[in-house]
Recover the amino acids of this structure.
């Protein structure tokens, strides 16, 4: 059964009628195929109307949709011979961030990103994509491997934020995130980032300081979650919708402000409705960027990346 968001109720009702009709047989008075075709046209119109005017809070809901393609879906669709690399060589393995070596459309690459999980068991295994210090230290290690062997880096971002537990703080969460950011800025290879769902706080930016940063159309990227912002500003998490509007966290907002370099269009109705189309579009955009960056000198790449992020603050948009 497809999961529908609150604002998709009219669409859910139409698709429910379609399913009912498909279980009926033609009785002469009703042409099932024609009726289904008419209802499908209505669904498409409703989707276009609904998704053309999503509020910031509704985009947050779409970005968090449980059926949205996750990191492992992109790896299966885009990466050949993926070989995962586990552990931070200091404390433990963190399944919230997955990374490894593979081939992307003819290029040997290191790819890493957050994995939220698709059901109860996998969500618990991956801690809902909220990494601990060992996850960021693993990311740092993989980026250093990529730098050593001249391999481009692709990072896929999908997290509500770094894990805020006591153990994570005891093991140096902030320090691990800072060192991961520093590594992003220091590597001499192309680093291409795509926000595929939710980009939350330092937990996201730790592996998102890319030469090129792209966002899927209905993804979000912010210094804090709307619920967290609401609880701080209004002392009430119920103000999440107001916070979402104030944070300017949509792909359109951030592209306009210069924080991201491009927005990747999603299929009608969101990425969760067409995984294959979404992963293909992401692959095409990453490949285009990689072709432009791969022949640039490493020192120049690093200098440009640093200047890019320094300019954000200098222009008053940081």
């Amino acid at each position: 059964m497809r999961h529908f968001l609150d604002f998709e109720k009219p669409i859910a009702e139409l698709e429910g009628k379609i399913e009912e009709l498909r279980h009926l047989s033609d009785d002469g008075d009703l042409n099932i195929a024609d009726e289904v075709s008419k209802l499908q046209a209505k669904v498409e119109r409703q989707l276009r109307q609904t998704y053309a005017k999503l509020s910031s809070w509704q985009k947050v809901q779409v970005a968090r949709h449980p059926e949205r393609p996750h990191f492992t879906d992109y790896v299966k669709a885009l990466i050949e011979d993926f070989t995962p690399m586990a552990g931070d060589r200091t404390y433990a393995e963190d399944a919230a961030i997955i990374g490894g070596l593979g081939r992307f459309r003819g290029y040997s690459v290191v790819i890493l990103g957050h994995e939220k999980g698709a059901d109860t068991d996998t969500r618990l295994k991956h801690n809902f994509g909220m990494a601990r210090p060992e996850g960021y230290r693993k990311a740092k290690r993989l980026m250093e491997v990529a730098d050593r062997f001249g391999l481009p880096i692709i990072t896929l971002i999908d997290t509500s934020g770094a894990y805020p537990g006591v153990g994570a703080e005891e093991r140096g969460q902030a320090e691990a995130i800072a060192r991961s950011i520093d590594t992003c800025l220091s590597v001499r290879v192309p680093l291409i980032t795509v926000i595929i769902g939710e980009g939350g706080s330092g937990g996201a930016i730790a592996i998102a300081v890319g030469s090129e940063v792209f966002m899927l159309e209905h993804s979000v990227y912010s210094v804090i979650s709307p619920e967290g912002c609401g609880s701080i500003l209004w002392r009430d998490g119920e103000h999440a919708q107001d916070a979402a509007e104030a944070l300017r966290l949509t792909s359109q907002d951030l592209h306009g402000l210069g924080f991201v370099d491009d927005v990747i269009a999603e299929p009608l109705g969101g990425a969760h409705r067409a995984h294959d189309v979404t992963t293909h579009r992401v692959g095409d955009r990453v490949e285009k960027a990689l072709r432009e960056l791969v022949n640039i000198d490493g020192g120049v790449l690093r200098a440009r990346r640093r200047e890019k992020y320094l300019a954000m603050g200098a222009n008053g948009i940081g």
Summary: The chain has two domains: 6-53, 60-314. Residues 32-51 form the longest helix (20 residues). Residues 6-53 form one domain. The beta strands are 79-84, 97-104, 107-114, 153-159, 191-200, 212-216, 220-222, 262-264.
